[in-house]
Amino acid sequence: MKEAGEGKFCPFCSTRLEYEYYQYAHIGKFKCPKCNFGDNKIYKFITDVDLKNKTFKVDNNKFKIQFNSIYSIYNFAASITATSLYDVKYDEMKKALEKFVLNNGRQEKIVIQDCETTINLAKNPTGANVSLRLVNEDDSEKDVLFVLNDNLADGKDVSWIYDIDFSNMNNVKRFITSGTRAYDMAICIKTSGISPNKIESYLDLKEAVKALYKTKNTKYAISNYTAIQETRHEILKLKTSSNENC
Ligand SMILES: [Zn+2]
Questions:
Q1: Which residues, by Cβ under 5 Å, contact ligand 1, an ion?
Q2: Cβ-contact 28, 64 below 8 angstroms
Q3: N or C: which end of the chain has fewer CB within 10 A?
């Protein structure tokens, strides 16, 4: 509940929404006690969500997917609902979702120098918190790279990073920060209670990526808007060079 909660109020009458259950940010089963906003007809209900094995069910049909985040499940709920209204069969959707991957820094998974690496975009506290949730659901020893830029498209005000919850990280061995606001990111992580010995900062992204792969821990790279493609580029460069060495 420490997550950013600015959306937990009714957009019609500003009353605080009442939640039956809660997933992240404003997402969950809610209803406005004053005007009933949120009391929607349910078209499709996703059950048996298994994030470890990446499966879920709709009307007792089991779907296998390539993602293990709760926000992906919400996206798939929306697409299954929409396609069902156009009579697309579950079997067709199963085939499509089973193979569906994003290779543009949205939960992109690659192996770099024998390290499982996940690259994810986070441009607001909600995105960052769900990215950290993914990190926490993985029990292995991990290093996390956080790249924060403050270019025009990112917004010059980076105070939103203080709505990211770094206080309960599971088995993260090192935080590496980079981007034009690498030091702000480092201070933010430190003030969350993480030991400064675990934090390394590099204004130069190349150096940050090099430092990230100093160990064999699992890697997570989280970047904001203008940083995501350069972060991918630097990480993927290591893939090419290691392949050439082979
Ligand atoms: Zn309301």
A1: 10, 12-13, 15, 32, 34-35, 37
A2: no
A3: C
What ranges in 100-227 are assigned the alpha helix state H? 125-137, 182-191, 205-212
CA–CA separation, 158 vs 167, rounded Å? Answer: 19
| 16 token code pair | 């605080």
Cβ–Cβ < 8 Å for 175, 149: no
- Name all domains of the chain by residue range, CATH numbers in brackets: 1-40 (no CATH), 44-99 (no CATH), 108-245 (3.90.190.20)
- How long is the chain? 246
Distance CA 197, CA 102 (A): 34
Cβ atoms of residues 186 and 199 within 8 Å: yes
For the chain, 246 residues long, the average pLDDT of each consecutive 10-residue run is 68 92 84 94 94 94 92 93 96 95 84 94 90 92 98 94 91 97 98 96 97 97 96 91 47
Closest Cα partner for 56 from 90, 29, 83, 31? 90
Give per-residue burial for 214-226: e unless 16+ CB within 10 Å, then b: eeebbbbbbbbbb
CA of 7 to the centre of ligand 1 (A): 12
pTM of the model: 0.80
Q: How far apart are CA 161 and CA 186, in angstroms?
A: 10
Strands 46-50 and 142-147, sheet pairing: unpaired
Ligand 1 centre to CA of 12 (Å) is: 5
